[in-house]
Amino acid sequence: MFNKKKVITSVVLIGITLVVFVFVIPLPEKMLCLEPVKVPSQGKASQAKAAVYVPIADKESGFAISYIHSVNKGLVTDFYSITQENNLIIKTSRFYSYGAGMPEPADQPGQVFVETEEYLEMQNINRQMPFLLMAVGVIANHKVYIPERNSTLDLAEWFIPQTRLKISYKSLTFFKYILNTKRKVLNG
After folding, report:
1. How far is the CA of 179 from the CAs of 46, 49, 102, 142, 175, in angstroms?
2. Any idea what DSSP says for residue 185?
3. Which of 50, 132, 161, 186 is deepest in the core (most CB within 10 A)?
4. What is the domain range of residue 45?
5. 0.90 exceeded by the pTM?
6. Distance, first Cα to last Cα, the chain
7. Residues 77-128: tens digit of each pLDDT
């Protein structure tokens, strides 16, 4: 016959193991995370219900964010890589017309200003951050490009304009991964 005490103990241990696996232990694959953030004045996530997660293995090629600049109305593309500590680092900013609000060649020591026939580029920016906060623009037409997947996310298709996003690179728990399947992980 069954030993009732042993069966209950086994069921409890299996339950605890499942809870730890689902809610605590992160998945081994790290992802670029685009998550709506709470707006203090509203007290709720900013006009969006789910996040977007993109697996990125090639930290050096990282990702790029392109948008229409609010002042000079030209296209800007910022190129990011990911450090060993999983911080984001802006390496280069490329723009196609020069004007108000655009970086000056002598803004920061060590930066290199490159001018080609197609674009202007500020290189060696090397500004490191644990995450990037931004709002999905109404007119900015924000896009995130993932070179290793050769895929582009049009943020207006995934989030309502004015949604505030926190962009970071991290592991997710299985629960968080499953919770956001409404948005699905972009597989390229």
Report:
1. 18, 11, 40, 25, 6
2. B
3. 186
4. 30-179
5. no
6. 54
7. 999 999 999 999 999 999 887 666 666 666 677 888 888 898 888 899 999 9
